[in-house]
């Protein structure tokens, strides 16, 4: 059978890993795909020291790969959204299948890309765009196809998870750990995408669409970072039996779909709460099978290449099938996607961790408790810590049961109006992730 020719665009960390895996495991890959898969053209502005491209056509103009009539599958690994979007849309117009690890491209332009691919009868595969080497897209889209998905929760950014792990295990400050993460190569020089949740938001947008059969809606996701989390918050949470994780959470409710990334307290007994360092994990709750957990490296050259190459194999297997009988890009057929609304964060129900630095005055706790009670908010646990000295405020830490976020906001405004606070209230959401 005629080999499948692959063109790789981008020869950085993931591109070089993909190139090497395809060559190193060529025999096993051919046995799985039913035909040889050959890298015949590479588009890269510079060579990579770990990828020996001798014998392969290399173009500095990456669009030469898209225009190569011998290339059957384009593997896009350049990152970004503007050039990548142009490249992918041109590849589709040229009748080529596409494999990409670009979560920003899919989250922000996926609806347009998938519509173009359906029109041209080609496939766009993107397993590596979410959670690196963890096959979470295939698990939700195909492995759980019999299920109604209730919710998905994920630790899907290794940098943020590394920082929070170090803060919890070693009592270190956020700024100190961030600098170390940058030195180790876990975080970029500008860490905004990681620590402010944008990277995780791209990935969660994709997960939610596949789980619930809705269009990609990155602009509607609620995103909050971890830069305000302190050593004290991490320690108090652990004292109460919780771990703080930067969690992506999407849930289908009677009124809409929750879509949010933020720091979250998780009971330490949950497996996902004990995912540490740069590792990723995604927990899926569905009606037939119940809870399932997917764990592994969320980044790195060959872990991500593993997902890229798996997509190449899937596309190669489907080259001769009727385009209308392929697995839909977003799990549900394009004409069956739902218009279920994305809920604003004010309409989401969660538990809360509250930390207040209160003035050393009689009756302060009673006033705060009354303000919460008036809003029908139940206190589940409370810790009052000792003052550092006679002039310092008193740390007051509470866990409150699930409540509508808008009601929580109103109650906190009433507490602020009591003139009992020495500093503003720290509020972190809480998810039990189980019965």
SSE topology sketch:
Layout: E1 4-9, H1 13-24, H2 26-33, E2 37-43, E3 57-59, H3 63-66, E4 73-76, H4 82-93, E5 97-100, H5 103-120, E6 124-125, H6 136-143, E7 149-155, H7 158-170, H8 174-184, H9 192-195, H10 198-212, E8 222-223, H11 231-239, E9 242-252, E10 257-267, E11 279-286, E12 290-297, H12 301-317, E13 349-358, H13 364-374, E14 379-384, E15 394-404, H14 405-416, E16 426-430
Parallel strand pairs: 1-2, 1-4, 2-3, 4-5, 5-6, 8-10, 10-16
Antiparallel strand pairs: 7-9, 7-11, 9-10, 11-12, 13-15, 13-16, 14-15
Helix pairs in contact: 1-12, 4-5, 5-10, 7-8, 13-14
Write a structural description.
The protein has three domains: 4-133 and 301-336, Rossmann fold, CATH 3.40.50; 136-297, Dihydrodipicolinate Reductase, domain 2, CATH 3.30.360; 347-430, ACT domain (Alpha-Beta Plaits). By secondary structure, it is of the alpha/beta class. 35% of the residues lie in helices and 24% in strands. It starts with a strand and ends in a 5-residue tail after the last strand.
């Amino acid at each position: 059978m005629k080999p499948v020719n692959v063109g790789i665009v981008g020869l950085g960390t993931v591109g070089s890993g993909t190139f090497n895996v395809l060559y190193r495991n060529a025999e096993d890959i051919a046995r799985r795909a039913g035909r040889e898969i050959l890298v015949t053209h590479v588009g890269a502005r510079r060579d990579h020291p770990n990828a020996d491209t001798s014998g392969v056509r290399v173009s500095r103009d990456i669009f030469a790969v898209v225009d190569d009539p011998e290339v059957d599958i384009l593997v896009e690994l350049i990152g970004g959204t503007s050039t990548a979007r142009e490249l992918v849309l041109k590849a589709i117009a040229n009748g080529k299948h596409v494999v990409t690890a670009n979560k920003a491209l899919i989250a922000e332009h996926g609806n347009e890309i998938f519509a173009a691919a359906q029109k041209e009868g080609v496939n766009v595969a993107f397993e590596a765009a979410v959670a690196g080497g963890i096959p979470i897209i295939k698990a939700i889209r195909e492995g759980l196809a019999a299920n109604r998905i209730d919710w998905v929760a994920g630790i899907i950014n290794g940098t943020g998870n590394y920082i929070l792990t170090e803060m919890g295990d070693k009592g270190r400050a956020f700024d100190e750990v961030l600098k170390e993460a940058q030195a180790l190569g876990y975080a970029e020089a500008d860490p905004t995408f990681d620590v402010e949740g944008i990277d995780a938001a791209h990935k969660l947008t994709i997960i939610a669409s596949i789980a619930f059969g809705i269009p990609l809606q990155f602009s509607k996701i609620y995103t909050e970072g971890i830069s305000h989390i302190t050593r004290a918050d991490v320690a108090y949470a652990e004292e109460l039996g919780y771990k703080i994780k930067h969690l992506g959470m999407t849930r289908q409710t009677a009124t809409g779909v929750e879509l949010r990334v933020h720091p979250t307290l998780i009971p330490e007994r949950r497996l996902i709460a004990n995912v540490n360092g740069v590792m990723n994990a995604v927990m899926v709750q569905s009606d037939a099978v119940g809870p399932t957990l997917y764990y592994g490296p969320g980044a790195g050259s060959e872990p991500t290449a593993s997902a890229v190459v798996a997509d190449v194999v899937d596309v190669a297997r489907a080259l001769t099938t009727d385009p209308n009988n392929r697995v839909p890009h977003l799990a549900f057929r394009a004409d069956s996607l739902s218009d279920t609304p994305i809920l604003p964060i004010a309409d989401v129900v969660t538990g809360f961790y509250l930390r207040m630095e209160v003035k050393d005055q009689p009756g302060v706790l009673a006033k705060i408790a009354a303000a919460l009670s008036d809003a029908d908010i139940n206190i589940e646990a409370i810790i009052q810590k000792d003052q550092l000295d006679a002039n310092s405020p008193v740390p007051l830490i509470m866990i409150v049961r699930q409540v509508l976020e808008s009601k929580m906001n109103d109650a906190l405004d009433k507490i602020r109006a009591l003139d009992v606070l020495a500093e503003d209230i720290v509020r972190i959401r809480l998810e039990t992730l189980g019965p």
